[in-house]
Design brief:
Elements: H1 3-11, H2 17-37, H3 55-77
Helix pairs in contact: 2-3
Length: 84
């Protein structure tokens, strides 16, 4: 049994501390993407608002979300550093 196997068995976690930090950062990026996508509605239902078609909602927010999800995949797949 290697040191790495012993370390995984002793902590009981499949991912390392760095992985969980990266997952939290990715989660924050995804939340920012959803915040950028929000809004643009009209207070009066009889009036149409063209704010829903802004650059921020149509282009920027989906790019931020895509980056956040790709970052999450990286955070999960990254191997923990070996402390030999």
């Amino acid at each position: 049994m290697t040191k790495k196997d012993k370390e995984i068995k002793s902590t009981g976690f499949a991912l390392g501390k760095e992985n969980y930090k990266l997952i939290a950062i990715g989660f924050v990026i995804i939340i920012i993407g959803f915040i950028l996508m929000a809004g643009g509605g009209s207070n009066d239902p009889n009036v149409f608002s063209y704010d829903i078609f802004s650059f921020r909602r149509i282009t920027l927010a989906p790019i931020v979300l895509l980056f956040g999800f790709i970052f999450e995949i990286y955070a999960i797949m990254k191997k923990p550093k070996d402390n030999n």
